[in-house]
Amino acid sequence: MVRTVLKADERRSQILDAARALFMRRGYDATTINDILAATRLSKGAFYHHFSSKAEVLDALCARMAHEGLSAASRIFERTELGPVERLQLFFAAGSQYKDENAAALKAVLCVLYRDENLRLRLSVTERTIELIAPRLAEVLAEGRASGVFEIDDPAETARLILHLGRMVHDAFAAAMRLPPAQRAQASALCRARVDTYERAIERVLGVARDRLTLVAPSMIERFLDAPAPDLDIGKGAES
């Protein structure tokens, strides 16, 4: 049988595709490097040529998902016929749609990132995501400031602030996911309250009227909470 020779970036994508499918189906902890090798039919040497550990695979997977999310949002930034507020709304709507379409994968990732032992990894993923998205968001904010729609001094710093505050929404979703099914109503209330607080805070930061912004649709919250998540208690800590 002839082995298919892939370029380095194609091989890396193959590993990430397999890891994503396994993490979604079995959970991060229950997935071993050997499982990834079996799914990709790679040798350990080939795997370690691209990644030093399973944690590095997760880190790269998070980075790729951030790029995918930005790709969808970039089309919104380019719609210059729209005003700054409309583009900001659509930017967050695109993000919500991406989360909606990839809810199972995102839940698997969140469950891992929000473990105490993964704090450093979570902070790294957060900072890289912000560095990726903030410049494009700052462009919209700068246009809004120039037209008098947003009352801000520094678009770049305001963009970073908005994205950092968004991490608090992720905190709420991660906490809600840990609640048992019997507390589904409490999980929904927690997420809705955090989203509402976030939206009101961003309105004040930008100097726009209250209730002007709807950044996360309530229906997306419910669909995200109802999306299946892998059993994350199986094989905890397995690596190979």
TrEMBL record:
Molecular function (GO) terms for this protein are: DNA-binding transcription factor activity; transcription cis-regulatory region binding
Q: Which UniProt keywords apply?
A: DNA-binding, Transcription, Transcription regulation
Q: Where is the signal peptide?
A: none
Instruction: Show where the HTH tetR-type domain sits.
Output: 9-69
> Does the entry feature the keyword Transmembrane helix, yes or no?
no
Keyword presence, Transcription regulation: yes
In terms of SUPFAM superfamilies, this protein maps to: Homeodomain-like
The UniProt annotation gives the DNA-binding region as 32-51
Q: Which PANTHER family match?
A: HTH-TYPE TRANSCRIPTIONAL REGULATOR BETI, HTH-TYPE TRANSCRIPTIONAL REGULATOR RUTR
The protein in question is named TetR family transcriptional regulator
Q: Which organism is it from?
A: Sorangium cellulosum (Polyangium cellulosum)
